[in-house]
TrEMBL record:
Entry binding sites for substrate: 7, 64, 139-142, 172-174, 194-195
Name of the protein: Ribulose-phosphate 3-epimerase
Gene3D superfamilies named among the record's database cross-references: Aldolase class I (3.20.20.70)
Source organism of this protein record: Aciditerrimonas ferrireducens
UniProt cofactor note: Binds 1 divalent metal cation per subunit.
Residues at the catalytic site: 33 (proton acceptor), 172 (proton donor)
Keywords: Carbohydrate metabolism, Isomerase, Metal-binding
Enzyme Commission numbers on file: 5.1.3.1
Amino acid sequence: MVLIAPSVLSADFGNLAEAVGEVSPAADWLHVDVMDGHFVPNLTIGPPVVASLRRHSGLFFDCHLMMEDPGSYLGAFAEAGANGCTVHVEVGRSAELLAEARRLGLQAGLALNPETPLDTVLPYLEACDLLLVMTVHPGFGGQRFMAEVLPKLAEARKAVDERGLAVRIEVDGGIDEHTAGLVARAGADVLVAGSAIFGRERPWEAAQAIRRAAEGALATKGAS
Ligand SMILES: O=C(CO)[C@@H](O)[C@H](O)COP(=O)(O)O
């Protein structure tokens, strides 16, 4: 089953609760992009905004911490109502951060950038609930999908399945109704999309189109 996670990065920040409410019937999770201006050259939102949104939404909040020091904030995100927090393998201390996330009752995610080899996350798979394979360089919405990441995504799926793990594999960046089938076939089961949902006139329908494209590709894969 494929989960669709609209990314709030492309939503109207002045009207966030309404934007989230509008897309919710077609969303499984809400992807919350947290950027610190250091790990990535952009600044977005933090725990107070998550806490405010929590009062308006019952969705699973999937917080992607693009931060150099996520460990200092995991507790604040848990307190604010996050359900899952994903940290980047590139910042180090992965074992410690994943264990801390789980200790706080969060689903623990580990992300890797497009140029980061899969080997860097393999030692931590058992400590993860989610592996986030970035399909753009993190920091901004609306970038081009990097098809060169597809072999790494397929390798990640193979590693998770060979170990018999229930780790979800999420993709983020450039996902739309054209790329959804590619990533679903390569093994992704959580699809994050920002501009292809919130950037469209009818976000709810756009999310459904992405879901249909992913499920259609999986059905064809099953039949072939
Ligand atoms: O983490 C990020 C960007 O760093 C994302 O979650 C973006 O929000 C995805 O945006 P689109 O590529 O779907 O427009």
